[in-house]
Structures are given as C-alpha cells and as structure tokens.
Amino acid sequence: MGPLRVVVVARRFWPLVGGAEKNLADLAAAWAGQGWEVTVVTARWQPHWPRDLLYRGVRLKRLADAPRDSWSTVRYARSIGRWLRRRRGEIDVVCVSRLRHEAYAAARALGRRVPLVLRAEGAGLSGDCRWHAQTPCGWRFRRCCRAAGALVAPSRSVEQDLLAAGFS
Fold first, then answer.
1. 101-110 vs 70-86: helix axis angle to the nearest 10?
2. Strand, helix or coil at 34?
C-alpha cells in the first residue's frame, strides 16, 4: 500500500493568512512530512497567482477564480465538484474546511465513495451553523454535511454550535 492520498479543500489558503489558513497549512505540511501525498484545492484570489505550485511539500491547486459574489461562488463550487469527481479513484480521504459551499460540492461529488472529513469554522454569528440557518437552502448544506464520515470542531464553542444544530 502506498502513501495516504489526502485532499484538503479550503476557500482560502496561502498566501492568504489567518488563523484557519495557518492551521490548515501547518496540518497539511505535517501530513506531507509523514510521507502522505497532500493536495490543497483552493480558489485563485489574484489573477497573477499560479494555478499549481508546491508549498511546504504540499501540492497546491487553485481552481476557479475566487468566489466574490453569488455566481462566482457557484462556479467555484462546481469546479471543486468536477475536480474531485475526476480524481475519486486517486484519493483516500478528503478534508474540507468550512461547512459551506466547499463541503456541499465535495459531499455531492464523492457520495460514499471517498471518506469525507469536515472541519467547522467559527462559532456564533459568523459560524457555519448560523450560516446554515440564515442562508436560502441552508438546510441542503446542513443535510450534506451530516452525511460526512467525520466532523471536526476546532474549539469548544464550535462544538457547542454543532451539537445545538443537531450534529452528532
């Protein structure tokens, strides 16, 4: 058996930096350091950014241009779904940051064929659970997220939000 093939899907990634982006970059680099084949799939926020590069031992693949409005968000989510569907047989596990468009696209593209791990981001007014409650069709996103193989709460407050929203 070869190295574990992991895909991390994140809306924002290096060189955009914040707490979640730094945590994901550190996690992906640590997995690569263990000999895993790690690919981060993300948006392309600036037109001059390369679509493919190697960052800290991690392959970085920037798909569609950044989701800045409703239509570009749909295009971005579709590009994630297409990319994952084409590579299902080459992936052992997918880890998605946020329980939003990226999670929905991954869940729909993978079905039960590839294990899906979702990492919730934020709690309270800016959290994923609140977003589900306020977004049109948010119930669809929540339903897809509940079908994931595992759910990660990076903090106690995120865990409380998830439990209150009916996640196990």
1. 30
2. coil
